[in-house]
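Next comes one such specimen:
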Amino acid sequence: MKPITQEWIRKAEGDFATAQRELQAQENQNYDAVCFHCQQCVEKWLKACLQESDIFFSRTHDLTQLLNLLQGIDPSWESTRLQLDTLTVYAVELRCPGLSASESNATEAFESCKQIRQRVRAHLASLVSEKG
């Protein structure tokens, strides 16, 4: 696996751990932070996948844009569109006044994050085994 891909993964896993810790906090949970870090985790995992596949991507927090690039690798990624659309909102919208995440939003974001993370990990593992 390319070193830059591994760096994307390390950063993604940092966001995953932060989201998980915050979701499990016993008091003063910050559901906005859970949603934000879930979005960031997925963004970095998708970028790792694109990086490993030598697909150029611009600086973006729009997971739908990244999805469109991934579909060139595997059209079945379309099944994640709704989850990615929802997570994309959490990149910026929750960082400013006017919108706040609920516990339900945070739980759903974390579940989506886990599912997409697992899918990208499997995809990357298959890429690495193909390169042998």
